[in-house]
Structures are given as C-alpha cells and as structure tokens.
Amino acid sequence: MKSIKDIESASLYIKDIFKDNIDIAVVLGSGLGKLVEFIEEPIKIKYSNIPGFPKSTVKGHAGEMIIGKINGKNILAMNGRFHYYEGYSLNTITFPIRVIKNLGIEKLIITNAAGGMNPNFEAGDLMIINDHINVMGDSPLIGKNYDELGPRFPDMSKAYCKEYISLANTVAEELNIKVRNGIYAPVSGPTYETPAELRYLRLIGGDAVGMSTVPEVIVANHMSMKVLGISVITDMALADNLEPLDHTRVMETANKATDKFVKLVAGIINKM
Ligand code: HPA
C-alpha cells in the first residue's frame, strides 16, 4: 500500500523537472500514444525513473510521462498505464493518479481500447464513457483510507463529469467526428471474454468491455477530480457473432482510429 509520503516523493521528483502548473492530465490507452507527437516542447520522464512507479509490462505501452503544451495548455500525458492483470494491486496501478492530483491537476482524460458490445457500434468508433459498471471484482480503495485524500465512502453519482460529456459531444460535432456514448464495463483480464460472459456484460448494461480505466476513475473521484473517459472500440465483442481476437488486432484498429482520436482529444483540451 502506497503512503502519502510515496505520493509526495514522486510528485516532488516531477516538480523538480517541470515547475509550471499543469492544467490537464491524459492517460493514453493501448495503441493511442500518437497524441504525444502533438505535444509541444515535450519533456519526457520514464516511469522507471519516478520514485514509487511500477514498471509497465505490456507491448505497445511505452511507459513514460510527457509534459508539454497542446493548444497553449500545459498537459501531462501518460503514455502507457499499469493494469490489474500485470499482477499489481489496484492500489499500485492507480498510484500515478494520486501523483497527478498531488501535482495540482484537477482535470483528467482517461482513454482506453475496448470491445464494442452494443450492436450499433462498429470497430474504429470512439465512445464517450457516460458511466461504468465495475465488474473487476476489486476496488483500489480497499484497505486503509487516507482521509487527507478523500472520504472512506466516496460518492460515484457523477463519476464522469456531465459537463465534460457534453463538451466532448459538442467538440466531436464541430469537428465532424462521429462519437458514441455508452457504459464501460471492465473485467480483470488478461483473457478476452467468452460469449457467455459477453452476454452477461451486455445484459447488465455494458456497451463496451475492457480491462482498465475504472480503477483510475474511482481513485480520481475519491479525490474529487473531474473525469472524462473515451474508449476506442477496437473490435466488436458480440456474444452471438464473436470472432477470435488477439492483441495485435486491438492495436491495429486503435492505430487506425488514432487520427480522429487525436483530433478529438486536442479539440477537447482546447476547451476544457
Ligand atoms: N475485451 C476486453 N478488452 C478489450 C477488448 C475486448 O474485446 N478489446 C480491447 N480491449
């Protein structure tokens, strides 16, 4: 279990490298790292150099923080994140969000690659996350509560900021980018789902399935941060018509959707 001291050490390390205030943090999902090419005057910090950070083990996850400007705003991008299935506790994988908040950042954009369970979706679609159902079977807040960070029993009635959901939809419309809206339901992974599991996840109200994001969103809400979530639908996860899936296909589709993804996120940052 990470302590307040661990959070402060990591954030002091980053503050020593980048002294200005940072407006927005963006967590980039699998295959979505292209956004970092649009960060001006980038300063790169490898996760492995930040005290207390775990090491990213997934292919396609670069594992570094990039701080710089997009549309004149200071942003911090996390290129690569930590996952539950890598063997870390949810407390450990959400440590970077604790550090981000400690840096004074209140606005968070969290992105991921996900399977589309809503039959109206198509692979390559972008989905604004309107809400989630935590079916990971765990919570990052289990264990000692640090009251300085947030309450024992955090409210989740507005886990995804309503204002940001409408902002994202408005920006998408202005940029002529088609977006979907839906509910994200994350499993622990690392297996993709069986047809019966997908039938269940759809039945309980999920539109997209993935293996990330929700732990970070819970921790961000614990600390009263404002969150926007965006999924890139990399494959259709339909119980009755399920094609074999592998990580390469997920990465390929994410890469194909990356241009509109980057355009949308940059547009949102501009107005956040
Ligand atoms: N299931 C779970 N996680 C995923 C998927 C999926 O179909 N696609 C991308 N991440």
Outline of the structure:
Pfam families: PNP_UDP_1. The protein has eight helices and nine strands.
What does this structure look like?
- Residues 23-269 form the Nucleoside phosphorylase domain.
- This is Purine nucleoside phosphorylase.
- Its EC number is 2.4.2.1.
- It comes from Clostridium amylolyticum.
- This protein has one domain (4-271): Rossmann fold, CATH 3.40.50.1580.
- The chain has helices at 4-17, 90-93, 95-102, 162-174, 195-203, 214-222, 247-256, 258-271, and strands at 24-28, 40-46, 64-70, 73-79, 107-116, 126-132, 179-186, 208-210, 226-236.
- The longest helix has 14 residues, at 4-17.
- With 272 residues, it is of the alpha/beta class.
- 30% of the residues lie in helices and 24% in strands.
- Helix 1 (4-17) packs across helix 3 (95-102) and helix 4 packs across helix 8.
- The protein has a five-stranded mixed barrel with strand order 5-8-7-6-9, surrounded by four helices.
- The structure holds hypoxanthine.
- Hypoxanthine binds at residues 113-115, 192-193, 209-211, 234-235, 237, 245, 250.
Indicate the topology.
Layout: H1 4-17, E1 24-28, E2 40-46, E3 64-70, E4 73-79, H2 90-93, H3 95-102, E5 107-116, E6 126-132, H4 162-174, E7 179-186, H5 195-203, E8 208-210, H6 214-222, E9 226-236, H7 247-256, H8 258-271
Parallel strand pairs: 1-4, 1-5, 5-9, 6-7, 7-8
Antiparallel strand pairs: 2-3, 3-4, 5-8, 6-9
Helix pairs in contact: 1-3, 4-8
The structure holds hypoxanthine.
